[in-house]
Amino acid sequence: MAVRHRLIKASPAAVWEVLADGSRYADWVVGTASSQPKRGRWPQEEASIEYEIRLGPFRLGNETIVRRCRAGSVLELEAKAGFLGTARIAIELREWGRYCLVIVDEHPLQGAGGMLHNAGFEALIQLRHRAMLARLAAACEDGERDRAAARRVPGRAGADHA
Q1: Which of 43, 78, 79, 103 sits between 20 and 30 A of 159, alpha carbons compared?
Q2: Burial 54-93 (b: 16+ CB within 10 A, else e)
Q3: DSSP state of 158
Q4: Where are the beta strands (DSSP E) in the chain?
Q5: Which of 13, 142, 100, 9 is nearest to 150 (CA)?
Q6: Which residue in 10, 7, 53 sits closest to 29, CA to CA?
Q7: Interhelix angle for 12-19 vs 119-152, to 10°?
Q8: How far is CA 14 from CA 28, 59, 121, in A?
Q9: Any idea what DSSP says for residue 45?
């Protein structure tokens, strides 16, 4: 199983805000282009989003389904990857002082991905997770900085003033 963690310098609430916005899925998931709701209301259980994966000239339409959600702390997803099958991706948020420790655990469930799963495949998932957690951190920490700046400027609610 590919398990990776990262300390994100934002509150767990700020991290959850990004994870709970299905339209931002492509902001933090490596390899995806735009995402849009397909069924239900993200991140409620059984809700899904669809998105496109671009590999050079190839474009694959995929879907991710919420299998378990504990608002603010746990999001478990089943990602469908076409002929590769499906994977379980569990994301756990833990309060770590004033920051958030994010733990990602991914493994194949069905299809060719399970048959191809070996130490080399595991290493690729680890690299993907490193990039994914860096993107998630950037999305969350940028938002946290914006909120902090808005709190420091009286009368400013995030809008730019000339």
Answers
A1: 43
A2: eeeeeeeebbbbbeebeeeeebbbbbbbeebbbbbbbbeb
A3: S
A4: 2-8, 32-39, 48-55, 58-70, 74-80, 86-96, 99-110
A5: 142
A6: 53
A7: 110
A8: 14, 31, 31
A9: T
Structure tokens at 124: 């690729």
Identify whether the C-beta of residue 8 lies closer than 8 Å to the C-beta of residue 102: yes
Whether residue 16 is predicted with pLDDT greater than 60 in this model: the reply is yes
Q: Tell me the two tokens of residue 98.
A: 């004033």
pTM assigned to the model: 0.82
At 103, the pLDDT band (50, 70, 90 cuts) reads: very high
Identify the burial level of 102 via C-beta atoms within 10 angstroms of its C-beta, where 0-12 means exposed, 13-18 middle and 19 or more buried: buried
Beta-carbon contacts of 115 under 8 Å, excluding residues fewer than 6 positions away, are: none
Q: In what order do the strands lie in the sheet with 99-110?
A: 2-8, 99-110, 86-96, 74-80, 58-70, 48-55, 32-39
The Cα–Cα gap between 69 and 51 comes to: 20
Name the residue with tokens 């493994």: 107
Q: What distance in Å separates the CA atoms of residue 1 and residue 126, rounded to the nearest whole number?
A: 10
Q: How far apart are CA 140 and CA 20, in angstroms?
A: 12
